[in-house]
Amino acid sequence: MWLALVLSINLVAVDDFTVANATAGIWHMIPISLTIIAATLLLSVSTRSARSAGGLAALFVLASYFVRAINDLIDGVPLLDWLNGFSIFSYYRSLTVLVNGVQWAYDALLLAVAAALFALALWQFQRRDLGV
C-alpha cells in the first residue's frame, strides 16, 4: 500500500503531499488494526464459539464506529461525548495524519490499548479450559 502511494505521488503532480505524508498515513493504520486484532483475540479466547467471537468482534468495531460517527454529526450530547472517549475510532485521525504527519499521542494510546487487550487475551488463554 505504501509503495502504491509513493508511486501515485510521483505519477501525479502533487505539491503538498509528500512521501512522509504517505508513510504517516500507512503507519497510522497499524495501531488501530492491532487494537482490533487484539480485541478479536481476547473475544476468541473468552467465548466458546468462533461464531460468537466473530459476532462480538464485529459488534465491537461497528459500535465503536457508529458512536464516533453519530458524535461527529450531533454536537452537545453529554452521553455521546462520554461514549466517544471509548470509541477506538475517535483516536484514528486519518485525514489529520495525511496533512500534519504522525499523531504520536493517538497512536501511542491505541498501541497501549492493543497491548493491554493482548495481555488480557494471554491471561484469559492461560485460564481457559482446553478440552477435546
Notes on the protein architecture:
The protein has six helices and no strands. It has one domain (31-126). The protein is mainly alpha-helical.
Question: Would you kindly provide a brief summary of this structure?
Answer:
By secondary structure, the protein is mainly alpha-helical.
Tally of individual domains:
1
Mean pLDDT: 87
Number of strands: 0
Strand content: under 5%
Helix-and-strand structural type: mainly alpha
- Element order, helices and strands? HHHHHH
The main pleated sheet reads as: none
- From the N-terminal CA to the C-terminal CA, the straight-line distance is 41 Å
What spatial form do the alpha-carbon principal axes imply?
Answer: globular
Q: Segments where pLDDT lies below 50 for 5+ residues?
A: none
Q: Indicate the radius of gyration in whole angstroms.
A: 18 Å
With helices defined by DSSP (H or I, 4 residues minimum), what is the helix count? 6
Question: Level of helix content?
Answer: over 70%
Key phrases:
132 residues; mainly alpha; 6 helices
List the helices and strands and how they pair.
Blueprint: H1 2-11, H2 19-46, H3 50-73, H4 78-84, H5 94-100, H6 104-127
